[in-house]
Design goal:
With 115 residues, this protein is mainly α. 65% of the residues lie in helices and 0% in strands. It has one domain: Protein of unknown function DUF1465 (Helicase, Ruva Protein, domain 3, Orthogonal Bundle). The mean pLDDT is 89.
Length: 115
């Protein structure tokens, strides 16, 4: 079974990234996005939704009441790599996007420990 301390740390980190995402995408990120061309706005909107999907998937797995009772492996959402020229890379949203991918990788690694 995955260590409780590792799951607790993943939970805390997921909440922290979710708070950062909401703070940036609903605040300075919204103003930044509004100044971008339509194509960039679309790319950012898609990545924002993907970040939300990743965070919800990790949180859902962590909060599953079956934790410790043979919980199935974490079903990782499609992450893919973030393009080197993605517009978010130049702003705080890029770090948030990368952090959400890292959380998914941690959940996948932990799920391998779940019996």
């Amino acid at each position: 079974m995955a260590g409780l301390a590792a799951r607790d740390a993943l939970y805390r980190d997921t909440v922290r990234v979710a708070d950062r995402a909401r703070g940036w995408f609903d605040g300075p990120g919204a103003a930044w996005r509004a100044r971008q061309p339509a194509a960039v706005q679309a790319l950012v909107a898609v990545e924002s939704l993907a970040i939300t999907t990743r965070l919800l998937a990790v949180m859902s797995w962590l909060l599953d009441p079956r934790q410790g009772e043979g919980l199935p492996a974490f079903a990782a959402p499609e992450c893919g790599d973030m393009a080197a020229d993605h517009p978010l890379r130049a702003v705080p949203g890029g770090a948030i996007a990368l952090a959400s991918r890292a959380l998914v990788a941690r959940a996948v690694a932990l799920s391998g420990d779940v019996a």
